[in-house]
Amino acid sequence: MVDCIDNDEHIIHILDKAISGTVLGEVNPLRRRDHLQQHTGQHILSQAFIQIAKAETRGFHLGTDSSTIDLEIDQISPELIAKAEDLANKIIFENRPIQIHLTNEKDKFPIRKDTERENSIRIIEIQEFDFSPCGGTHAHQSGEVGLIVIRSIERVKRLWRVEFLCGQRALLDYRAAHQTAIETAKLFSAARDKSPELVIKLQQELKDLQKHNRELLNQALSVEATNIYNTSTPNSNNLRIVKATFNRSLDELKTLAQLLVAQPSIVALLATTLESPKIIFACSNDIDIDCGTLLSQFCKEFGGRGGGKAEFAQGGLPIGTEFETALESLAKSL
Ligand SMILES: [Zn+2]
């Protein structure tokens, strides 16, 4: 069987091949048990949210991995979630009988949600807890649901969607979460529940190292800039033109350019071929060159984009662009 559809009047079985005559159907016991646990669990959880937060269930979806109910409530907190989860599990652990009432007098029962059906109504009672008109498959005792866990919540329009798992699904989810926690803790050679504090410590150490690394890099760049300046010679216009191509990050290049043009009468034309070609074009503020306009024109010729201020500009070129010769003649033209 491919699917089974309840269209209110009939139960329709969708098959993958034609059949004729009488056939014997067989219920898949594992699937039935799974659906029974999720569905009965939903009755219990919906009532728990009413008792804890006066939150009515406006929608229910039984998914293949997890199920959801949509609650009518403005605000929801982790504390409230825990309270509803505790109450739902209390009802499960008490193993309350679940009874089916077939009645024509629905008004005699304190039903959770009204139904448009008249005459014979099927009401499911979880003893002294919840009465719901329903035609689905339910447990005989609440204990069969095993366990209810709420996995996540999210705002959906004006409702709160609560994702939950019951019975075997809760066990499998616990096993997976436990395995994840164990494997994470193993990386620290620590006990399972120690991981969060160790990750926080590791993040702080990483931040400190990055800060230290930046400071060292800035020192190195400062020395490099001084060396470049000292070894450069002014051209006929009395400008020191520094042209170089590196395989370094753009941030590093920017810092180096800034350090260079902090000196008087120097122009920096620095390129990097790391990932795609990028160019920094900067000059000291005593030089009358419009780096932004010049670099914009330069990049446009190669199908790239560039621009910026008169003293500091940057641009990008398509991957594989042969720009070196053009950059050389740009440097010579200054
Ligand atoms: Zn039901």
Summed up, what is this model?
This protein has 7 helices and 14 strands. With 334 residues, it is an alpha+beta fold. It has 2 domains: 3-187, Threonyl-trna Synthetase, Chain A, domain 2 (Threonyl-tRNA Synthetase, Chain A, domain 2, 2-Layer Sandwich), CATH 3.30.980; 210-333, Diaminopimelate Epimerase, Chain A, domain 1, CATH 3.10.310.
Describe the structure.
This protein is of the alpha+beta class and 334 residues long. The chain folds into 2 domains: 3-187, Threonyl-trna Synthetase, Chain A, domain 2 (Threonyl-tRNA Synthetase, Chain A, domain 2), CATH 3.30.980; 210-333, Diaminopimelate Epimerase, Chain A, domain 1 (Roll), CATH 3.10.310.40. 40% of the residues lie in helices and 25% in strands. It is built from 7 helices and 14 strands. The protein has helices at 29-53, 78-93, 167-187, 195-231, 250-261, 291-301, 324-333; strands at 3-6, 11-14, 56-62, 67-72, 98-103, 121-126, 130-133, 148-156, 159-166, 240-246, 266-272, 278-283, 305-308, 312-316. The strands form 4 sheets. Strands 10-11-12-14-13 form a 5-stranded mixed β-sheet, with helices on both faces. A hairpin with a 2-residue loop joins β8 and β9 (159-166). α1 crosses α2 (78-93). The radius of gyration is 35 Å and the shape is elongated. The chain binds zinc ion. Residues 39, 43, 124, 134, 136, 138 line the site of zinc ion.
